[in-house]
Specification:
By secondary structure, the protein is α/β, with parallel strands linked by helices. It folds into two domains: 2-146, Glucose Oxidase, domain 1, CATH 3.50.30.20; 153-358, Class I glutamine amidotransferase (GATase) domain (Rossmann fold, 3-Layer(aba) Sandwich), CATH 3.40.50. It is 25% helix and 32% strand. It has helices at 37-42, 96-103, 113-123, 137-146, 153-157, 181-189, 203-207, 227-236, 247-255, 343-358; strands at residues 2-7, 12-19, 24-31, 49-53, 57-58, 77-80, 82-83, 106-109, 126-132, 163-165, 171-176, 193-198, 213-216, 242-245, 260-276, 282-293, 303-309, 315-320, 325-328. A ten-stranded mixed sheet has the order 10-12-11-13-14-19-18-17-15-16, with helices on both faces. It has a seven-stranded mixed β-barrel with strand order 1-2-8-6-4-3-9. The protein has a two-stranded parallel ribbon with strand order 5-7. The radius of gyration is 20 Å and the shape is globular. Bound molecules: glutamine. The site of glutamine has 11 residues, from β16.
Length: 363
């Protein structure tokens, strides 16, 4: 069935629909990963976004039971050059098409994804709609331009109820802003007793759980859309060791007095080089972000830059100079992508062990 992508700037891409035949709006972004489509589609940070994959063949190893980063994918749509319907992999249980249909995600195939990516790179991310090819584009463009876009993504994808994954190690509270399962897996792998809490859990409620450490998860949208979380993180700073990942990194920055900005088209892919300024080492990282910490805003804070992106020198890691708190803009949990930075979880555990022994040390 002929379907189309209409962009707010009036560009139209007509292709073949697959997955769910629904009308879906979203911010159109691109991901440069060659693999990892199942994890990307189920990463809650893509809530309200339409992802186009720059790699031309997607779906070739199918969909399996284990690689979902969340049970309810929040992405609006997927755009590919070619979607295969004949996957081949021993773990594959269904096709990309079936999964998208089942989860209500609109798919569009057979368009020039390279041209679309170039448009996004030039103009920055654009709003778009996936719909039937017979919808009048002029009306769609007008609607896209006049739509008031939601800013409640975090509340939609965060857990509604707290839950625990027991362990014999230190107690870690994981603030879920739209958490990827991979973060839980990595903390659990270290033997921690994990308590996952909703995004709007207060400082008091968190401290009542007697955490030895707190992880701030990834999540969708603009970090400034969750001021209540910024306030909570601000109150927790200096009381318990903190580790922020992606949205968690941005929230830690805001809570420390820094500012965030929207990037033109963001970083989304599995091969983003990052430099660790403390060791001089380079890491390949998995990334998915459209916002970044403004370097100019750091002067009035006690934050120090620990990592930068090689492609555009943007901030990829921060450390608090006085308190045990650090964060990264990239994804040390990988899935999808390289596992080069997994040691950051062990580094967090060191802060946690230190805290358990002597409490927070003020420099
Ligand atoms: N993966 C994330 O946590 C993304 C953070 C934020 N929503 C951004 O786009 O920058």
């Amino acid at each position: 069935m002929k379907r189309q992508l209409v962009l707010e700037n009036g560009e139209i891409f007509v292709g073949e629909g697959f997955g769910a035949n629904t009308v879906r709006d979203g911010e159109v972004v691109f991901n440069t990963g060659m693999t990892g489509y199942q994890e990307i589609l189920s990463d809650p940070s893509y809530c309200d976004q339409i992802v186009t994959m720059t790699y031309p063949l997607i779906g070739n190893y199918g969909i399996n039971r284990d690689d979902f980063e969340s049970i309810f994918p929040a992405v609006s749509g997927l755009i590919v050059k070619e979607a295969t319907d004949m996957p081949s992999h021993w773990r594959s249980e269904s096709t990309l098409h079936d999964m998208l249909r089942e989860k209500g995600i609109a798919g569009l195939a057979g368009i020039d994804t390279r041209r679309l990516t170039k448009i996004i790179r030039e103009h920055g991310t654009l709003k778009g709609r996936l719909c039937d090819a017979d919808e009048a584009p002029v009306e769609v463009v007008a609607e896209l331009r006049n739509t008031q876009w939601a800013c409640d993504q975090v509340s939609r994808v965060s857990t509604k109820m707290p839950y625990e994954i027991p362990g014999n190690g230190p107690r870690v509270v994981l603030m879920d802003f739209g958490m990827k399962k991979g973060i839980l897996r990595e903390i659990n792998r270290l033997g921690c007793d994990v308590r996952v809490v909703p995004y709007n859990t207060t400082e008091k409620e968190i401290l009542q759980l007697h955490p030895d450490g707190i992880v701030l998860s990834n999540g969708p949208g603009d970090p400034k859309d969750v001021p209540e979380a910024v306030e909570t993180v601000n109150k927790l700073l200096g009381k318990v060791p903190l580790f922020g990942i992606c949205l968690g990194h941005q929230l830690l920055a805001l809570a420390s007095g820094a500012d965030t900005v929207k990037m033109r088209f963001g970083h989304r892919g599995a091969n983003h080089p990052v430099k660790d300024l403390q060791t001089g080492r380079f890491y390949m990282t998995s990334q998915n972000h459209g916002y970044a910490v403004n370097p100019e805003s750091l002067a009035q804070t006690e934050l120090e830059v620990t990592h930068i992106a090689i492609n555009d020198q943007s901030i990829e890691g921060l450390r608090h100079k006085r308190y045990p708190a650090f964060s990264v803009q990239f994804h040390p949990e990988a899935t999808p992508g390289p596992e080069d930075s997994q040691q950051l979880f062990s580094r967090f555990l060191q802060d946690v062990e230190q805290f358990r022994k002597v409490g927070v040390q003020y420099a």
